[in-house]
Structure formats: C-alpha cells, structure tokens
Amino acid sequence: MQFGGAWTEEKLQILERYLDAYTTALKNTPFNLVYMDAFAGAGQIDLQEDRDAAGFRRGSTLRAIQIRDKPFDELVFVERDPARCADLERLRDDYPNRRITVENSEANGFLRDLRKDWRAWRGVLFLDPFATEVEWSTIEAIASFHALDTWILFPVSAVARMLPKSRRPDDISPTWATRLTIVFGDQSWRRLYRESPQGELFMRPGSMRDSGVGGLLDIYKDNLKRLFGKRFLSTSRRLKTSTGSPLFEFIFCVGNPRGIGPATRIAGHILERM
Ligand SMILES: C[S@@+](CC[C@H](N)C(=O)[O-])C[C@H]1O[C@@H](n2cnc3c(N)ncnc32)[C@H](O)[C@@H]1O
C-alpha cells in the first residue's frame, strides 16, 4: 500500500501513543479491550513515493497489534479491498496467539450493524478514510455504543474541493451536495454560507481565507459536540502536506462517559504536545 508523507507518520504516532496510554490506563480494570480499525489498509505502508525514505512504514493495524504493556484482547480490522484483506490475513497469521478478525466489509455498514454486548468491553476505534467515506449515521451508531474512544480523520481537503469556486451555494454539484449531507448528517454544511442584508449569499467571514475549510470544520465539530456532549474533545490536530496545505483534521471523541476525564487528558496532552 502506497501513500503518505510526514503527516502519515504524525497521524500514526498520535494513534500509537494513545493506544499505549489507553491500554496502560485500563490495565487493572475488569474490561476486555478491543481495537477496531474500520479503514484498516494492508498492515504495512509502502514508502516508494517518499524519495527520502525506503522500505515500509508500520500501518495502524500492525502498531495496534504490537502494543505491549497491556495488549488488546481482540483486534478487528475492517477493509473493503480484498487484496488488502489478504495482506491483513497474512499479518494475522504472523500472530497466532492473538485474537484478530479480518472483515472484508464496507466500514459504515459494518459499524452500523455491529451488535455487541459492550458491558464487559471498552476499546479504541480508528476511522482513517481516504476522503469523505465516513457517514454521519455511522458516527451516531458509534456514539450510542458508549464504549469506543474514537479517532476520526475529517477530510478537510476533500471537502474544500467540493465547494463551488463561485462561492455561491447553489453552484455546488448535486452529487457533492448529497455527499456533504451524508457526511454532516443534515444540511448544516449550508450554514457555511450566510445571507447578507441585501439578500445575497456569502461565505462566513474568515472562511474566504481558507477556501471554507475552517468554516466547514467548525460546523462538523459543532455537530460532534451536539452528539457527544462532553465526550467531544475540542482540541484537534490539522494534518498538512509538506507544503503546508491542510489535508485532514484529526479529531477525538470519548466512548464511555466515565472515561471522559482520563481520556480527554491523555488525548489532549498528545494532541497539544506531540
Ligand atoms: C488511508 S487507508 C488506511 C491506512 C491504514 N490506517 C494504515 O495505517 O495503514 C484507507 C483504507 O480504507 C479502505 N477503504 C476505503 N473505503 C472504505 C470503506 N467504505 N469501507 C472499508 N474500507 C474502505 C481503503 O481500501 C484503504 O485501504
């Protein structure tokens, strides 16, 4: 699997630090711990594209398997691409003593249909799509589990590309309008545009500078805050290309309300200091 630059390593290090701290924090509790990776990839990331590096970078799944202090009791890898699933199955076979499930499924459907008795379980979920694949109805399902601390990559760059250059909301393509509504869960993304006293539609002040990225991100975060309440962490990390263009926003939400204090402290510390 090929992709990524420094921002990929940044994202994976944030996740890995959190997984390490999370499993240690829950080590002496009665819970079984699960790691779920809904856009799992292939286990390794080919660095061919990166001229300054060679070989492979460990992907999120391999990093989760290798968490040592208190290893996860179960790992679930969901991946739509059959070839990547075959790679994940080989990875699973390298760790015969671990409970690893590879699911060749579409991530949204898999998570929405997930029926698990969460009472004895806590865990971490990683949502690492290429672009706008994560649907709001999936986020709602995850919030209802009250069990999975969730790291979400919000695709600021993909979303910004959908906005009409004319900055007039009616110029957005119907396909993209539908996609944004699926991602945001409602028409809230249209709030990016506000009506002037003259009846014209303009982008929110401040949004012009960043092609609407900041405005749309604020709206998405407002929606998360409404859904998760205090389980939503307002601190997040902007992941950028080597030339400084924003790609993704890395966002964190807590699973169980009882974990809000420690989970937000750990995630906040990692996001601010790392
Ligand atoms: C950015 S990569 C994940 C990289 C991985 N986290 C890692 O560190 O190696 C996104 C992955 O999601 C898969 N994917 C894309 N859309 C999907 C969907 N709707 N359901 C499940 N997997 C999907 C792609 O095939 C790809 O392997």
What is the N-to-C order of secondary-structure elements (H for helix, E for strand)?
HEEEHEHEHEHEHHEEHEEH
> How many helices?
9
CATH class: Alpha Beta
User: Considering the protein shown, what is the CATH homologous superfamily?
Assistant: Vaccinia Virus protein VP39
Radius of gyration over all CA atoms, rounded:
19 Å
Distance between the termini: 26 Å
Question: Helical amount among residues, as a percent range?
Answer: 25-40%
Beta-strand fraction estimate: 15-25%
Say how many strands there are. Answer: 11
Low-confidence region ranges:
195-202, 205-209
Give the names of the bound compounds. Answer: S-adenosylmethionine
Number of domains: 1
Shape: globular
Instruction: Give me the side-by-side strand order of the main sheet.
Output: 5-4-1-6-7-11-10
The CATH topology name reads: Rossmann fold
The structure class reads alpha/beta
Going by CATH, the architecture would be: 3-Layer(aba) Sandwich
Structure, explained:
The chain is of the alpha/beta class and 274 residues long. The protein has one domain: Vaccinia Virus protein VP39 (Rossmann fold, 3-Layer(aba) Sandwich), CATH 3.40.50. The chain has helices at 6-25, 60-65, 82-93, 107-112, 136-145, 156-162, 174-184, 213-228, 260-273, and strands at residues 32-37, 44-46, 56-58, 74-78, 100-103, 121-127, 148-154, 193-195, 201-203, 237-240, 246-253. Strands 5-4-1-6-7-11-10 form a seven-stranded mixed beta sheet, sandwiched between helices. Helix 1 packs antiparallel against helix 9 and helix 6 (156-162) packs across helix 8 (213-228). Mean pLDDT is 90; it is low at 195-202 and 205-209. Residues 12, 39, 41, 45, 59-60, 78-81, 84, 106-107, 128-130, 133 line the site of S-adenosylmethionine.
